[in-house]
Amino acid sequence: MTDYLAFPDNFLWGGATAANQCEGAYDVDGRGLANVDVVPVGPDRFAIISGQEKMLDFKEGYFYPAKESIDFYHHYKEDITLFAEMGFKTFRMSIAWTRIFPKGDESEPNEAGLSFYEDVFKECHKYGIEPLVTITHFDCPMHLIKTYGGWRNRKMLVFYERLVRTLFTRYKGLVKYWLTFNEINMILHAPFMGAGLCFEAGENVEQTKYLAAHHELVASALATKIGHDIDPDNKIGCMLAAGQYYPYTSHPKDYWAAMQSDREGYFFVDVQARGYYPNYAKKYWEQSGIDFDITDEDLILLQENTVDFISFSYYSSRVASADPKLNEQTAGNIFASIKNPYLNASEWGWQIDPLGLRITLNAIWDRYQKPLFIVENGLGAVDIPDENGYVADDYRIDYLRDHIQAMSAAINLDGVELLGYTTWGCIDLVSAGTGEMQKRYGFIYVDRDNLGNGTLKRTKKKSFAWYKQVIASNGSRLD
After folding, report:
1. Among 281, 274, 278, residue whose Cα is nearest residue 304
2. Which residues face 318 on adjacent strands?
3. Any catalytic annotation for residue 304?
4. Which of 152, 224, 290, 325 has a CA-to-CA distance to 80 between 20 and 30 Å?
5. Is residue 190's pLDDT more than 60?
6. Do 393 and 464 touch, CB atoms closer than 8 A?
7. Close Cβ partners of 472 (under 8 Å, ≥ 6 residues apart)
8. 218 Cβ partners below 8 Å, 6+ apart?
9. Alpha helices, H only, 305-452
10. Among residues 123, 130, 376, 436, which one is catalytic?
């Protein structure tokens, strides 16, 4: 059993967070306002993150969870100490763009923001933890949205280049692993969250989304080039919201529907890992009347600056059908999917499929033959603490154990090259999809509810000791 569960000696075990879901301190030390700050919890959230409804400032009657979140900004030393106690080899986190450039288009960065992240990285290194940094994790300065229209505007390339050049220069030697954009395919599903897009009446929504996607893909290539130029030791990766689609039946039309659904996400990585737009995407644009300017310089930049590795999130597999009447969708998930009758689901309707992780790992590896990194995986659940704040989350341990076994099979039986694994929300934080705190993923319970009430006290859950054992044994102890 130990041989089966063997992981590479340098495997990077850890956990993942995002600035807008954990930092809080939204107006502290010169930080500017970002898109994710003005997205409330509640029934209007999806309409806002998908760009259907405009909310560009705070409004009365709403609660905005990102304002305070779990206040990692003031608790980072305490939290990193807990991560170190678990034995983390890596900690995935993101930069809040508006801490570095509060409006986004300034010529000079905000020193207080730069110093904060430098302190965080040094705190990680104090414990031998390698930072894994997402440059843009559902994060766009509101000034750039109001003034330039977000990523639909090519001027965003100038501002993003200034950001990444600043980060790569300042944190040379402190950060080695970088991701350019979190779940870049989310542009197609939650475009305000993914690219700062709000749509006007009569606007060609599909064209605008793919135009913004093109600008982010060029920006990703530009970041890869700059990162390698400033420090050849930098490893730059892309990031996909993954999860293989299964055909609902063995009907060829269902298989075709699944293949098309997979391509919708793979389109982005096809460009970032291979360096060019796939023919199926160009044909789709042609048939859909989508036409925007792609320069020769863009194509050269994409071709010459492919990523070093491919990272992705995996929570569940999905199901596709060609039958338009099959509309029983998975509840609570930004990626709509037909329910799979063979799988159980989480409290938020996410279908639990450990074998699907092995399938997804193999599909991505077979497609690109580049090192992979699972940077999000976990179970969102309602945790009920006892009088001491302790949570006996055996359900989370079971979920993670099954997925780690699937990773091991992909490595040892299938030959997939996997760099590491960072569970999502290693400490409880605000959900990106719903804005809730009660949808908890962490090994560490944070005393805070959906409306911001609570002490923010941190308490270890049962899974904390379990994951510590997993890391200490390099994945050979999962009991």
Report:
1. 274
2. 245
3. no
4. 224
5. yes
6. no
7. 87
8. 157, 298, 301, 302
9. 354-368, 394-412
10. 376
Measured CA to CA, the distance from residue 147 to residue 326 in angstroms comes to 42
Instruction: List Cβ neighbours of 114 (8 Å cut-off, separation of 6 or more).
Output: 100, 166, 170
Question: Distance between CA 404 and CA 427 in Å, rounded?
Answer: 19
Contact (CB, 8 A) for 316 and 351: yes
Whole-prediction pTM = 0.97
pLDDT band at 2 (very low <50, low <70, confident <90, very high): very low
The catalytic position among 123, 183, 216, 436 is 183
Is 111 noted as a catalytic residue in this protein?
no
- Range with the lowest mean pLDDT among 324-328, 399-403, 429-433? 324-328
Closest CA to 359 of 333, 340, 334, 346: 340
DSSP 330: P
Query: How does 317-329 read in b/e, with b if 16+ C-beta sit within 10 Å?
Result: bbbbbbeeebeee
Q: pLDDT per residue over 203-220, tens digit each?
A: 999 999 999 999 999 999
- 104 has a pLDDT exceeding 90: yes
In sequence order, the 6+-apart residues with CB closer than 8 A to the CB of 370 are 273, 307, 308, 309, 310, 417
